[in-house]
Amino acid sequence: MTGILDSVNQRTQLVGQNRLELLTFRLMGRQRYGINVFKVKEVLQCPKLTRMPNLHHLVKGVAHIRGQTISVIDLSLAVGGRPTTDIENCFVVISEFNRSVQGFLVSSVERIINMHWESILPPPEGAGKANYLTAVTNIDNELVEILDVEKILQKSRQWLRLWTAISRLRLPKLSRKNRSKLLSAL
User: Fold this and answer.
1) How many Cβ atoms from other residues are within 10 Å of residue 27's Cβ?
2) pLDDT digits over 64-98, tens only?
3) Engineering a disulfide at 25: which of 2, 59, 106, 171 sits with its beta carbon 3.0 to 4.6 angstroms away?
4) Under 8 Å CB-to-CB from 134, ≥6 apart: which residues?
């Protein structure tokens, strides 16, 4: 118990030391990503996901975790990459902010790294407004893209609201199959 309390105490003291802790992980590829651990509630092996009718294409499924039903967003798809495969060997990063809990599906989780803020750089010029980077850094001679999970979730929610509104429309001229194709294209 003392070890756990020491760990919590050490992490809470980071606030005054101009330091940042990053959880590093990979999506569907070799690129390494990171997010601020203060945005992470928990990381766990991907549980069984339940597919539900008319789910948005970014949502791989829902999971019942610790008494809550949580949507699990395919983070690779959300940032413009390939869909995540081999879900049984993936991980879910549970994040909570704005009183909302959601899961982000990632291919692998590496480690937590304690860094000085001087090592964190702004995203490269020309990254564009649609980019989900909040910053970049270099770890072990490898560029790590630090993701802005709030921006990803905000964009996902905009798509989810649009998708939900369209899914409720009665489109009499479209067959059920073509309507499903239209909805999944969003």
Assistant:
1) 25
2) 888 888 889 999 988 888 888 888 899 999 988 77
3) 106
4) 123, 146, 147, 148, 151
